[in-house]
Design goal:
Strand order of the largest sheet of chain B: 11-12-15-10-16
Order of helices and strands of chain A: HHHHHHEEHEHEHEHEHEHEHEHHHHHHEE
Radius of gyration of chain B: 27 Å
Distance between the termini of chain B: 78 Å
Structural class of chain B: alpha/beta
CATH class of one domain in chain A: Alpha Beta
Oligomer: heterodimer
CATH topology of one domain in chain A: Rossmann fold
CATH architecture of one domain in chain A: 3-Layer(aba) Sandwich
Helix content of chain A: 40-55%
Distance between the termini of chain A: 50 Å
CATH superfamily of the largest domain in chain B: P-loop containing nucleotide triphosphate hydrolases
Helix content of chain B: 25-40%
Strand content of chain A: 5-15%
Structural class of chain A: alpha/beta
Number of helices of chain B: 22
Largest sheet of chain B: 5 strands, parallel
Number of strands of chain B: 16
CATH architecture of the largest domain in chain B: 3-Layer(aba) Sandwich
CATH topology of the largest domain in chain B: Rossmann fold
Largest interface: A-B, 49 and 66 residues
Strand content of chain B: 15-25%
Shape of chain B: elongated
Chain lengths: 421, 506
């Protein structure tokens, strides 16, 4: 039994769920009328979208049993909060169409805790490059370790990687779903869904049991945008759902940041355009923390030996950084390694790593470094053991961002792990 | 006139084994008909016409009486034309044209032409093995098969050109020449030299490792990079087949009708097209025939465009790659083919097959492509190498010729010799064939090498099976370097060449 949602809000929310299919029919997918339609009162909403189902919808609304609805919520272990009760995420009140009810798993206290901490949303393509997955993992991990709540949408690709990173960083990720909170979508993220249900919080504006609808994806994006102070776009092609989230964020006055991609990469065209239009450049969790909390509020990278050794390049960082003594230990100290303070490498390993970063193949690496094929492979094996490179597809290698290895991202159907012989 | 009965021995081929078949001929008074019973197929039934015409055209009599031939055992399916000669001999003996005792300890096989001359048959080598096993003193074969059948010691092989000579021999009026000498001709097979291929050092190193340890290999690279050219050169890197192996190769080729009539001198290289059926690849059919993996026995099976092969065909390869044999069950009979081949697969690095810089494939696209390759098959592949586009090579302009086949082969042969002496009596000949138990015994790692492996496990880049694969490959790297001890560098190189777990999982 949740005391946090009032009867009227539950009824409005149930009505939206009832009219879900009609909304899809009227609005299709992305439609600029989405916000104004959802903001309508019940009678107007029925008049606007119900069509031939109007009488039925009115009967549904009139006969709505709030107590029964609370009971069935209690049975499924889902809680509900509305703007009139406590624990409703305050950030969502800035929306023009405030969701009447937020359904959640993980407990209202945990939700309050997560939404009162600094919040960053990490979004990106569902079919990203390996590079984007590495970056999203790193951002999720670094932000979570710094005590930031990482919000994402549980989609494939970048969303899943950000969630996994946050879990690895010890944070409780906040997942926003386009369907009911008890409906894992897409199915391939089932394991991730249950992991976040156990360790974090899942929220949705649709009542439990509902499958996502065409309009509910952009609707979910507006919630992700509203929840956070900073929205980081990791990789987005032009005209992608990720850019819709960024658009909502701009309208709501949130900070938008983007991770730079190759200028020739079709997959990163949208995120690169955001940078051109003035989005903050996000190269690391530290950059995101600087945007979120102000420069120097939570960094640690320059404390390390490598940071000091790097010397002159560090002069670019603003000088008003407090000394370690002033600000005490940073939460990021919990991280065991970061890409920018890799162990010092002997000459040939360094050259091999540089060439992997440059996107060179194994053949070229063996030739250009003069190592020859066998020793080039050995160097790559060594770097892989150090966690500095990883296999990319069948044959190539990519530079990873170091740090403790997170379970490799599962991109599609999970495959049963092989048995020990 | 009382019935006259004669019986003559021959062999039926099943898989690559031969089974003794007794041809009985019964001649008695009656309408002149010739009946063949005992599960003959169409080709065997047609033998009646060939036998009749061949006898008459050779100046012999075809008895104008009721003739019945029975092929025993009657439950074994008899296929093909190799029963012609035995049928003719049985008729000759039953009609008193040759002394019956002249066929007492002999077996015959051969296809007849209408003119009476003999055509070679498939599986002569397998029949010679069968004849020795069944205790025959002599095996009479078409003269073209004599060299092949003569590889088997303990059976006198008599090559006969035609029916007239057979009769003369059985009557003691003519003697067959001894089969041609089977001494092995030691000459390098001319399949092209490794130094014809420019660059591609990574792939060449991988080929050397594959040859040295018998490891299956996956070559990844754009079209036109020379994958087929390189794969064709792998048999040349392998040591020459020893006599036993050569006989195994010849036996398979003989059954498949690919033998040139003597001992196979080079290892087979088979490159079936990706549209091949499952039974074409692993063997099968109503009368089971060897598949490509068997034809590649003791040699190389090259599958270009691995991702285009049917999934069923690739999955069917798993068991033969594991055990070195194919088991085909037909009705109640299980037939086993040898299938110990090194597999070389080739594919593009992603579905679009363009060079890395122009590739627009996402991780999902590539994962999907990798999944077409069938995880169980990739699980049997120890090595992966990467090829560059030919264009990149021309730009770099490395004019030096690489190492020749002969010089790489010297290292391979030395490495194989180390393995042979280490693995004597274990049932395995190469590192790739080592069971988990043998791997633990013979690929022991200590110190730095062991630390590397443990690191791999700690980072989650090695799993149980992956661990053994890396060990076996590291063992080969050390063998090639002539070292007994596996060093940390060897483990690192094996890690670098192994197929990423991600690709296997994908």
């Amino acid at each position: 039994m949740s005391p946090h949602a009032c009867d009227a809000c539950l009824r409005k929310s149930a009505l939206i769920g009832f009219l879900g299919a009609r909304l899809s029919a009227v609005l299709g997918g992305l439609d600029s009328r989405l916000g104004s339609v959802l903001a309508l009162g019940e009678a107007e909403l029925i008049a606007a979208v119900a069509g031939r189902q109007a009488a039925e919808a009115r009967r549904f609304s009139a006969g709505f049993d709030a107590e029964g609805s609370r009971r069935s919520l209690a049975e499924t272990g889902v809680e509900a909060v509305c703007p009139h009760g406590g624990a409703y995420p305050v950030a969502l009140l800035t929306l023009a169409d405030v969701p009447p009810v937020i359904y959640l798993t993980g407990g209202v206290d945990r939700l309050r805790e997560l939404t009162q901490a600094p919040v960053a949303t990490v979004v990106g393509a569902r079919t990203p490059s390996r590079y984007a997955i590495e970056v999203a993992l790193d951002l999720g991990r670094g932000l979570a370790a710094a005590g930031v709540t990482v919000v994402s949408g549980l989609a494939l690709g970048v969303d899943a990687a950000a969630h996994r990173g946050a879990l690895a960083g010890g944070g409780g990720p906040l997942g926003v779903l386009a369907g009911g909170v008890d409906v894992p979508y897409p199915k391939t993220n089932r394991a991730l869904h249950s992991q976040i249900r156990d360790e974090g919080v899942l929220i949705s504006e649709l009542p439990p049991g509902l499958r996502p609808l065409r309009w509910s994806f952009p609707a979910r994006n507006r919630i992700m945008a509203a929840l956070a102070r900073l929205i980081v776009v990791v990789e987005a092609a032009e005209s992608s759902g990720t850019l819709i989230t960024a658009e909502f964020a701009v309208q709501l006055g949130r900070e938008v940041g983007a991770v730079p991609g190759h200028v020739t990469a079709r997959l990163a065209a949208g995120s690169n355009r955001l940078l051109r239009e003035g989005a903050a450049v996000i190269r690391s969790p530290q950059d995101a923390l600087d945007e979120l909390l102000g420069v120097g509020a939570g960094g640690r990278f320059d404390q390390t030996e490598a940071g000091r050794a790097a010397g002159p390049t560090r002069l670019e960082t603003p000088p008003r950084r407090p000394t370690p003594v002033e600000r005490g230990p940073s939460p990021l100290d919990a991280l065991s390694a970061s890409p920018r303070d890799e162990p010092s490498l002997e000459g040939s390993l360094r050259r091999v790593l540089d060439m992997v970063e440059g996107g060179e193949g194994v053949e070229a690496i063996g030739r250009e470094t003069g190592l020859g094929p066998g020793r080039a492979r050995a160097a790559l094996g060594r770097l892989e053991l150090m966690g500095l490179v990883a296999r990319d597809g069948l044959a190539s290698y990519v530079r990873t961002l170091g740090g403790p290895r997170v379970a490799p991202p599962i991109l599609d159907d999970p495959v049963p792990s092989e048995a020990h012989p | 006139m009382a019935a006259v009965l004669a019986s003559v021995a021959t062999f039926a081929i099943e898989g690559i084994e031969s089974h003794e078949v007794v041809v009985e001929a019964d001649v008695r008074r009656g309408l002149p008909v010739f009946t063949v019973v005992g599960l003959p197929d169409a080709a065997v039934r047609e033998a009646r016409e060939r036998v009749r015409a061949a006898l008459l055209n050779s100046g012999l009599d075809f008895p104008l009486q009721r003739l019945t031939a029975n092929l025993a055992p009657a439950d074994l399916r008899k296929a093909g034309p190799s029963f012609d000669l035995a049928l003719a001999a049985a008729v000759l003996a039953a009609s008193g044209q040759v002394p019956r005792e002249s066929l007492a300890s002999a077996a015959l096989c051969g296809e007849l032409s209408l003119g009476g001359s003999l055509r070679p048959v498939r599986g002569a080598l397998a029949m010679a093995f069968g004849a020795r096993k069944a205790g025959f003193e002599r095996l009479i074969v078409p003269v073209e098969n004599a060299g092949e059948a003569g590889l088997v010691e303990g059976v006198e092989v008599l090559g006969v050109p035609d029916l007239a000579h057979l009769v003369a021999m059985l009557r003691g009026e003519w003697r067959a020449d001894p089969p041609p000498s089977t001494s092995r001709v030691v000459e390098a097979p001319a399949e092209g030299d490794l130094n014809d291929v420019r660059g591609q050092a990574d792939a060449k190193r991988a080929l050397e490792l594959a040859a040295a340890g018998g490891h299956n290999l996956l070559m990844v690279g754009p079209p036109g990079a020379g994958k087929t050219m390189l794969a064709r050169r792998l048999p040349g890197l392998l040591p020459d087949p020893g006599f036993e192996e050569a006989v195994e190769i010849t036996r398979v080729q003989s059954v498949a009708g690919l033998s040139d009539g003597g001992l196979a001198r080079r290892r087979p290289f088979r490159a079936p097209h990706h549209t091949i059926s499952t039974s074409g690849l692993v063997g099968g059919g109503a009368t089971p025939r060897p598949g490509e993996i068997t034809l590649a026995h003791r040699g190389v099976l090259f599958l270009d465009e691995l991702a285009e092969f049917s999934r069923a065909a690739l999955e069917a390869l798993r068991q033969p790659l594991e055990s070195g044999r194919v088991e085909v069950t037909r009705g109640q009979r299980a037939i086993s083919f040898p299938a110990a081949a090194v597999l070389v697969g080739a594919c593009n690095r992603c579905p679009c097959a363009r060079p890395a810089a122009e590739c627009g494939c996402t991780d999902v696209d590539r994962a999907r492509y990798a999944r077409r390759l069938s995880a169980p098959l990739l699980d049997r592949i120890d090595l992966v190498c990467e090829l560059e586009t030919a264009g990149a090579l021309e730009l770099v302009g490395d004019e030096r010729r690489g190492e020749s086949t002969a010089s790489v082969r010297r290292r391979v042969v030395a490495a194989r010799e180390r393995q042979r002496s280490r693995l004597t009596g274990t049932g395995a000949f190469t590192n790739a064939e080592m069971t988990p138990r043998l791997t633990r015994r013979h690929a022991r790692v200590e110190g730095g090498a062991r630390a590397r492996l443990l690191e791999g496990h700690a980072h989650g880049i090695l799993t149980g099976r992956g661990h053994d694969r890396v060990l076996r490959l590291a063992r080969t790297v050390a063998d090639l370097a002539g070292r007994d001890r596996i060093e940390a560098d060897d483990v690192e190189e094996a890690l670098g060449f192994r197929l990423g777990a991600q690709a296997v999982a994908a």
